[in-house]
Amino acid sequence: MSNPFIICIIDDDEVYQFTVTKNIQSQQLAKKILVFSDGEEALNFLCANIGDNNAVPDVIFLDINMPIMDGWQFLEEYIRLKPRIGKKVTLYMVSSSVDPADTQRAKQIEEVSDYIIKPITPDQLKVIVNTLQEEANAQ
User: CATH code at 58?
Assistant: First the structure.
């Protein structure tokens, strides 16, 4: 199964980056995988590729706790940038934080589709991508 999606992982944990990337590749869930170690790197990429639907990700898996620019700071900037992006981007918070305050905060942000406790499983990845595929086919 070949998918037309660009998936972006924004997380400072290299082992987690590697594991999720391998899961996505082994299930052939994306045509391209972007990996950034902090929110600032990802934001710079988005700014540099505004309006380029072949570069901007379709799905973002965003960690909360990262150096330089954490997930919350990234979200603030992303919300400002979103009207200029030019395509729908589905965003998931993926964190090891089980703090109810983090979960509640994420659920109050319209741009966040869901809050997932790490580690994200291969089955969760597959369900997410299949749902996106069904939504794309329905349009």
Answer: 3.40.50.2300
With H, G, I as helix, E, B as strand and everything else as coil, classify residue 48.
helix
Token pair, residue 69, equals 């620019």
| 66: nearest Cα among 4, 108, 13, 2 | 13
For 34, the enclosing helix (H) or strand (E) is strand 32-36
Domain range for 128 is 6-133
Count the domains in the chain: 1
In this structure, is residue 138 part of a structural domain? no
pTM of the model: 0.95
Per-residue pLDDT of the chain (139 residues; tens, 9 = 90+): 457 899 999 999 999 999 999 999 999 999 999 999 999 999 999 999 998 999 999 999 999 999 999 999 999 999 999 999 989 999 999 999 889 999 999 999 999 999 999 999 999 999 999 998 898 888 7
